Every structure is written in C-alpha cells, then in structure tokens.
Amino acid sequence: MNDVIPENATPAAVRSSGALGPPEAGRRPVVGVSLKLYFGLAATRKWLADVAALRDALAELPRPVDLFVLPAFPALADARELLAGTGIAYGAQDVHWAETGAWTGEVSAGMLAETGARYVEVGHAERRRHFGETDATVAAKAGAVTRAGLVPVICAGERHDAGTERAVEETLTQVRAALGGTGPGSQVIIAYEPVWAIGAREPAPARHVRTVATAIGTCLRDHGVRGRVIYGGTAGPGTFGRLAGSVDGLFLGRLAHDTGNLRRVLEEVAAATAPLPLRS
C-alpha cells in the first residue's frame, strides 16, 4: 500500500533511497509547540521570553526551520510583544467557524489574524473527546482559518493502536473531511497524532508513523493543497531522527516546556533535513 522503510534506517539512508525523499523544494521543515492549559499568564510570559532567546540559535541552524508556538488566547498579546522581530510565529489552539454573530465566548479567525497570529490548531483529539467536535466541525473551522489567510494545523490520528492499515484508514478519513473545508492551493499543516500515543511513555513506532505520514502526503497532493506533515504524540529530542524523510517536522507538547529540549529538537530537525553533500 505504501513504501515501508526499515525501522533502523538512518536519516541519510531514508533521504538518499528516493523512497520518500526530503521535503520538496521551498517546503521548509517546521516545529510547533502547543502549551494547552498548563501555564498561567506569568509562566507563559517567561516561557515566551525563553523561546524568543532562541533567535540566535535559529539563525545558526544548518537549514532554516519554521518555529511556531500556540499559547492560550489571553497570552496572544504577550506573544506578539515578546516574539516581535524574532522570526518565530505564534497562533491559537482553537477557533470558531463563524466570522461574527451571537457566539458567546468564541473567537473568530479574523480576530486571530488581527492579533498577528499565523497558525491555528483545529481538531485536536481533546477537542473531539471533551467538546464533541466532529469531522464536519473541523472542516468548518479549517475553512474559516484559510479564508482569514491563516494556516490551519489540522490534527488527525487514530484513536486506538489497531495496526497500521487501520491507522491509515481512520486518519485519512479525518484528513479528507478537514481538507473539504479548504480550497485548492490552501496552505495547511497536518499534525499526525495517534491518540493512543499522546501522553504515552514513547512515541508511536517509526515504521508506523512513516507509513501513515506517507499516505497523508499523498492525500494532500491529491487535494491540491500546499501541505506539510508533522508528527505529534510524545515527540521530543530523538524523535525526528527516526522519522526524517517522511515528515516535515514535529508538534511538541510538555517536553518543550524546557526550552533546552526545544532547541535540541530544532537542531536535530535542521541537521536531518540539511542538503546532502555533493558526491565527487
């Protein structure tokens, strides 16, 4: 069904094999961080200041890596202030599908754009589980985000560890539905997060992730969108080295609360995606 790379293949071997190939020209690797509801405002400001201090480290990477962070709504103004001039983007963890109206407590994509946000997470498994969001909800939100000129970070992934074939089927059902809310040429990020791996002790097996991610990449091309695929689900230092060539980056959670871990991930992603040296 899809190319399967040996579990112990090195990043260089994956990239040089031609089976999956490096990210397409112009498609930069990307690392995202969602803070969820772990920090208060004071702690968020401190963390954002620590992230801003990574500016020089980002500039010294062997290949540019896009970095975005998603704090809680009340901290978007802090992100705008503290990340100004760093090249580090920020965004929101959720959005409403309507642009205006009697939607008490909701936030529109247009309002997020006014804050300077660039990315908006939609469809996370916790939103589906706790707030009853469906594929139709996610599609409506993804559409609202793209119409506002922002980039949706569409979360998708199977609920249970029931094998790779089932994972591909369940994940692509979610991805296709979400993309139905976007138009051709839209810029999107798909965050592949197997629900059973979120908060687990270890990420999902590399071979499993590679196969599902490859299927997602094919789906993105079939829908005519400009997409990147990142992996989340207990991701951290050491994860990307096992996935290089099949994903464009990582989506981090609590491991990135320590910005030292975040820096190590950025360095790992840059090193694994840097151009291979020319052969004489």
From TrEMBL:
CDD domains: TIM (cd00311)
Reaction equations catalysed: D-glyceraldehyde 3-phosphate = dihydroxyacetone phosphate
InterPro entries in the cross-refs: Aldolase_TIM, TIM_sf, Triosephosphate_isomerase
Enzyme Commission (EC) number: 5.3.1.1
GO terms for biological process, alphabetical: gluconeogenesis; glyceraldehyde-3-phosphate biosynthetic process; glycerol catabolic process; glycolytic process
Class of this enzyme: isomerase
Localization per Swiss-Prot or TrEMBL: Cytoplasm
Keywords: Cytoplasm, Gluconeogenesis, Glycolysis, Isomerase
Pathway: Carbohydrate degradation; glycolysis; D-glyceraldehyde 3-phosphate from glycerone phosphate: step 1/1; Carbohydrate biosynthesis; gluconeogenesis
Coiled coil segments of this chain: none
GO molecular function, one term: triose-phosphate isomerase activity
Domain of life: Bacteria
GO cellular component: cytosol
Similarity-based family: Belongs to the triosephosphate isomerase family.
Protein name stated in the entry: Triosephosphate isomerase
Protein source organism: Streptomyces rimosus subsp. rimosus (strain ATCC 10970 / DSM 40260 / JCM 4667 / NRRL 2234)
